[in-house]
Amino acid sequence: MRLFRWITPNQLTITRMASIPLMLYLIYRGGDEPNWIAVGIFFIACMTDYWDGVLARSRDEVSPLGKLLDPIADKMLVSSTLIMLVYLGGADVIPTIVILMRDFAVSGLRQVAAVEGIVIEAEKGGKLKTTVQMLAIGFLLVQQNPEGFYLVEIGRVLLWISMVLTLSSGFDYFRQYFRKVI
After folding, report:
1. CATH no. for residue 28?
2. Which pLDDT score, from 0 to 100, does residue 61 have?
């Protein structure tokens, strides 16, 4: 934690958002070196997702701005990377569309709930969904396979699994909302 004593959780979140254009450029450019750099940037961005939450809770620095920016940063990272991978033929279209549709629906639901004064908390299912999505994308980004493992295939299976988790956690958000409304 000493390493992070001068860094705020919101700085980590903003850094995650700022890294996305460079990572997408490297993915688009292709080739071994740019690809591995993109994988590294993606991995670091995923780690900032974990550490911003740890820091915010441990320092009691949970802020309204952080509550707003963190899920936006996650959706930007996952959505833009999946769209780029679909464009390049590295990810399947159907799970990507379902993931994006769920994210739009849940974001809209949370906005409606906020206007009504209802707080819909992120649950473990949503966190598991994000973790599996990030793992899937990580495997899909590894285009070269030096050890002979089926990394891209593992990534595609994980992407379909994350689609199922995405739908499940999306239903949880709607169930949570309707329980509070009714």
Report:
1. 1.20.120.1760
2. 79
